[in-house]
Amino acid sequence: MRYLERAIDHSLVAWKQDASHKPLLLRGARQTGKTTAVRHFAKSFEHFVEVNFEHDRGVQEFFAGELDVRAICAKLEMRYNTPILPGRTLVFLDEIQSCPNAISALRYFYEDYPELHVVASGSLLEFAFANLSDFGVGRIRNLFIYPISFEEFTWATDNALLHAGMLEASCERPLPSSLHDRLLALLRDFLIVGGMPAVVRKYVETRSFLACQQEQDDILVSLKSDFDKYHRRVPPEQIRDTLLSVEHQLGSKFVYSNTQLGLKTQQTKQCLALLEMAKLVHRVSMSYGNGLPLGGEINSKMNKYLPLDTGLYLRDSGLDLSEWIQDSPAQFVNRGKLGELFVGLELLKAGGTTLAGELYYWQREARGANAEVDYLSQCGNDVLPIEAKSGTRGSMQSLWIFLEEKKLSLGVRTSQENFARNGKICVIPLYAIGQYRHFLKPEAKTL
Description:
Layout: H1 8-17, E1 24-27, H2 34-41, E2 47-52, H3 69-80, E3 89-94, H4 100-112, E4 117-121, H5 125-129, E5 141-144, H6 150-156, H7 160-166, H8 177-193, H9 197-206, H10 209-225, H11 227-230, H12 236-248, H13 265-277, E6 281-287, E7 298-307, H14 310-316, H15 321-324, H16 329-333, H17 338-350, E8 359-363, E9 372-379, E10 382-388, H18 397-406, E11 411-415, E12 420-422, E13 425-429, H19 436-439, H20 441-446
Parallel strand pairs: 1-4, 1-5, 2-3, 3-4, 6-8, 10-11, 11-13
Antiparallel strand pairs: 6-7, 8-9, 9-10, 12-13
Helix pairs in contact: 8-14, 9-10, 10-14, 12-13
């Protein structure tokens, strides 16, 4: 089976080469490619020991009692008939949430066996952390993994040269229209397929959207079957209803009472918190945008929420794509709130692997005001407003208002338009928004 190259591969190699490497913990939603990435990475080691605490529950007893990690490794050597040697063996503790003692042991690998390369991963890790008083803060390196980005999708579909050519463009030097149109067509396919690795692999193998939808159905069933694991006192149907409400309210301030089951505000908030812990939804907090950090000045009562993936969102919404698929790429991207969702997810993925991503937007709170900027990010040492437009038209009034009020010199509009410059505003095509920092490097240096 062909391995789909991921950006996190480079982070794993850098970790291996770091002489002072800490035990590594991969965090992300279920089925985002954590295990596959580690198995591919393991090929750079002479030996590989993979422990799956869900499939091999007998191993859990190795972590009972006193956590002597060298003694634990001696037992693992016998169990898997593989030598565990510093610098030559990668030890992979998968589905570690099923063995809380193994999570606690990570700190002792750092303190008592630092020369050994240890990677841990699991699903629903945040739920396990909630029941632990200490899991090695400061002694563990975290890497966060998301579904496949558009850049990674171009690698998977053998369009890496097209993407590399895109990086040669700038807001002053747009792409040739033929290349721009090809990238828009590829973006349409990506929005339908989404970034779940199994679905992308199916697309690469078959180029069939129907086959991709079948794979998406399997993933949705699997993800929703986990709902009864989140919290014993929260019925799974309430979590499903809240997720459906997130999809229906995409792009708008979330109204907690707007659920089909008529949940109370507190019930909806609890379900949202659980979905965030499972990383199936991402919060977009309203920030006043007066300075950095953006999270230092927010209105906690005003939030938007994004589902995990564009492909899963389209499939779970029950939309009939047979009509949409006949649209031109430009028409397709212009439907609904797909553009805004895509931009938010790309900004998360562009934030790097070492910190959990956070998203912000701005809305003027004055009575009767309707000015709103879709996303706020950081450029150099200043706030960067980003307005997402699905089409090629639309007023930038809110963006100009924000720039004037905050006395900023740079803003971004992302849409189906080619690269362009409009005074203080750089126009970056939707397909390039994941690399916005690359295109703004000269501006960032002058701020």
